[in-house]
């Protein structure tokens, strides 16, 4: 399943790279792609509990870059 | 102005006053210190807060942390002006970056302003405004002048003209009437019409295009991947060098203040943000500009690949030619050419064969159907129709033999239609697939732009294919190829290509999808209304204009060039400043330029990729 998140506040390309690296390490999350121009993070997962994953990802993203104000699931 | 901007302006004003005082020595050193400290804190306290918070979270080597060290360090060794400047200009840079990114996001979404907000659904004789997503297949929708067509469908009632420029880049409106297909995202220019919806919103053209553009941005070009990787090592490396620059000379007994200053200068240029931001920004702008011209590029990677194209392979039918028959020549015996065409068209009027359609098209004035009598089909030969009581035979040589007419000359390589009246030969009409008016120009322009090989692959008979190829000016033509042969040929071309160069295949995406996906870059033409084409290709040209292949390549090259310019410029300046400050030639002011100035220049340069006017015909 493909999930897309919107990272509100993400304004720096370097931070996007950092977030991508951090989120890639989370178990059950594959093909992580962060695009700072569209402020979107996409990944694929086979996990049943996507909400828990999203929760974890948003924590990691905010930790990796203080610019990220909120994480919202759009797909 | 938001609060951040106000704060920044106040801080910069205080900083400017401080600089004036510093040079005029109006007040003593101690007072100067407080002026610069005030500017520093007003302008950058949020950076300090975040940096400290990051340290608590165990995040070092964050750009804010580095700015903190550099600026505080400068204050400690007594360089207050520099300390304040580092922080303030860092903030100016941040402000500018954020603004540039927002502007770009906005201009791209303006370019892609094709999303319909509502649909006028006709229900029980009344018109209600609904969300396009609520409309179902088979529903009737009304489109008023000035409105966007909300979904794909076909016109039931009314005539109008449609502006499809947002989808195709083509500015000449298209006139449409009952039965014609219309695509969501085009704008109704002249009059009200009603249409029957044939696709749900999420399958309609507008959704497909928007989805494609969105997705394209997540396919990163190799350069972008490289730069992100580079950035990962750059900052730690520079910070490590800064530590060495500070520690080693001090251990060797040199003046600590000089070397700490140099080390701090290192830290100021340690953030690779300028490059990291300008690369994706450049591709983003390039893809945006292409979409505006009706060229959908599915990713930055394809833009980079396209820039290295040196071979372009074309499919013939529908790509270089219109894919429909047009009259090549007419030869009348004992009647006028107009009469000949009229007779042929009337005789074929009952048929939907491509040849019949072309003949009818040629009779612009139309004709009186009451003159046409009974018509007999002669399968594999043609048709015999009674017109004004005469038996008009229209068909091939076999039909002429049957009616006892004798054609005057050999048929040649093209499709020939013979006409006879009551067994007496009237003449012949030669038809061929019409070459698109811009095909020859496209090939010439490709060559001017350094494309080494232009090749046509065609399933047509050799004489026909070769004639088309030579008219257009292609280097090579390979004919009589079955679909499987085309792939095999393409393989061979790809094997023969020069290293680091790419092969582009251009087709209509319908029957040559395998070739499109096999080539280094597959381009599909006529994407508007063809899901197959959009699916299969890496680059989709929305209309049927072959010249856009050239535009795509030029745009790809320009975007790539600008991206490389930025990388060389930004890294060049940074390394230069690192080297110069090591020898004490560069100071912290130069480093501030190396950080913020370079970012601003690189970003502005990237935004040039958005321009489309330079690709227009002179």
Detailed description of the structure:
The complex is a heterodimer of chains A (75) and B (618). Chain A is of the alpha+beta class. Chain A has one domain: Alpha-Beta Plaits, CATH 3.30.70.100. Chain A contains two helices and four strands. Chain A has a four-stranded antiparallel sheet with strand order 2-3-1-4. In chain A, helix 1 packs across helix 2. The termini of chain A are close together. Chain B has 618 residues and is of the alpha+beta class. The mean pLDDT of chain B is 87. In chain B, strands 10-22-21-20-11-18-19 form a seven-stranded mixed sheet, with helices on both faces. Chain B is built from 21 helices and 22 strands. In chain B, helix 1 packs antiparallel against helix 2 and helix 12 packs across helix 13. Among the domains of chain B are: 79 residues, Calcium-transporting ATPase, cytoplasmic transduction domain A (Distorted Sandwich), CATH 2.70.150.10; 161 residues, Rossmann fold (3-Layer(aba) Sandwich), CATH 3.40.50.1000; 114 residues, 3-Layer(aba) Sandwich (Calcium-transporting ATPase, cytoplasmic domain N).
């Amino acid at each position: 399943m493909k999930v897309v998140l919107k990272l509100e506040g993400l304004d720096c390309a370097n931070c996007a790279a950092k977030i991508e690296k951090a989120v890639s390490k989370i178990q059950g999350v594959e093909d992580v792609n962060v695009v700072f121009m569209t402020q979107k993070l996409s990944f694929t997962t086979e996990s049943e509990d996507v909400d828990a994953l999203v929760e974890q990802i948003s924590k990691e993203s905010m930790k990796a870059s203080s610019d990220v104000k909120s994480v919202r699931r759009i797909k | 102005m938001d609060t951040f901007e106000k704060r920044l302006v106040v801080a910069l004003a205080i900083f400017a006053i401080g600089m004036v005082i510093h040079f005029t020595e109006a007040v003593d050193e101690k007072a100067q210190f407080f002026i610069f400290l005030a500017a520093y804190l007003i302008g950058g306290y949020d950076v300090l807060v975040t940096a400290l918070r990051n340290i608590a979270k165990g995040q070092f080597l964050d750009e804010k942390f580095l700015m903190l060290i550099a600026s505080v360090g400068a204050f400690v060794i007594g360089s207050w002006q520099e300390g304040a400047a580092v922080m303030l200009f860092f903030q100016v840079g941040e402000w500018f970056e954020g603004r540039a990114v927002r502007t770009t996001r906005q201009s791209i979404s303006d370019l892609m302003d094709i999303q319909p907000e509502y649909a006028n659904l006709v229900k029980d004789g009344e018109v209600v405004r609904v969300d396009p997503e609520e409309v179902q297949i088979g529903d009737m929708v009304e489109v008023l002048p000035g409105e966007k067509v909300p979904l794909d469908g076909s016109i039931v009632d009314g005539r109008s003209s449609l502006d499809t420029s947002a989808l195709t880049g083509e500015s000449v409106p298209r006139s449409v009437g009952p039965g014609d297909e219309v695509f969501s995202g085009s704008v109704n220019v002249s009059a009200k019409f009603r249409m029957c919806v044939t696709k749900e919103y999420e399958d309609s053209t507008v959704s497909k295009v928007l989805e494609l553009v969105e997705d394209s941005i997540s396919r990163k070009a190799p350069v972008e991947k490289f730069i992100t990787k580079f950035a990962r090592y750059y900052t730690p490396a520079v910070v490590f060098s800064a530590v060495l620059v500070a520690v080693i000379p001090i251990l060797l007994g040199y003046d600590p203040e000089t070397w700490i200053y140099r080390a701090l200068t290192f830290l100021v240029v340690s953030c690779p943000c300028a490059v990291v931001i300008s690369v994706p920004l450049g591709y983003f702008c390039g893809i945006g500009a292409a979409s505006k011209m009706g060229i959908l590029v599915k990713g930055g990677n394809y833009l980079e690949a396209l820039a290295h194209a040196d071979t372009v392979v074309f499919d013939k039918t529908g790509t270089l030619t219109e894919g429909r028959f047009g009259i090549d020549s007419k030869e009348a015996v004992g009647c006028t050419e107009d009469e000949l065409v009229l007779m042929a068209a009337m005789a074929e009027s009952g048929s939907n064969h491509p040849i019949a359609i072309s003949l009818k098209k040629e009779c612009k004035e139309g004709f009186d159907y009451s003159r046409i009598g009974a018509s007999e089909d002669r399968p594999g030969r043609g048709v015999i129709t009674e017109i004004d009581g005469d038996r008009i035979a229209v068909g091939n040589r076999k039909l002429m033999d049957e009616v006892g007419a004798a054609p005057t000359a050999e048929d040649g390589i093209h499709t020939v239609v013979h006409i006879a009246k009551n067994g007496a030969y009237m003449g012949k009409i030669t038809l061929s697939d019409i070459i698109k008016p811009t095909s020859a120009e496209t090939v010439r322009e490709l060559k001017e732009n350094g494309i080494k090989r232009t090749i046509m692959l065609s399933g047509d008979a050799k004489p026909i294919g070769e004639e088309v190829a030579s008219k257009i000016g292609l280097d090579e033509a390979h004919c009589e190829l079955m679909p499987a042969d085309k792939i095999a040929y393409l393989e061979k071309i790809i094997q023969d290509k020069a290293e680091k160069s790419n092969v582009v295949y251009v087709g209509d995406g319908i029957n040559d999808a395998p070739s499109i996906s096999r080539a280094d870059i597959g381009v599909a033409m006529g994407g508007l209304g063809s899901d197959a084409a959009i699916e299969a290709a890496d680059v989709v040209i929305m209309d049927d204009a072959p010249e856009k292949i050239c535009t795509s390549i030029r745009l790809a090259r320009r975007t790539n060039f600008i991206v490389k310019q930025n990388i060389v410029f930004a890294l060049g300046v940074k390394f230069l400043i690192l080297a110069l400050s090591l020898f004490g030639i560069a100071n912290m002011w130069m480093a501030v330029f190396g950080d913020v100035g370079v970012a601003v220049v690189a970003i502005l340069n990237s935004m040039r990729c958005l321009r489309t006017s330079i690709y227009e015909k002179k």
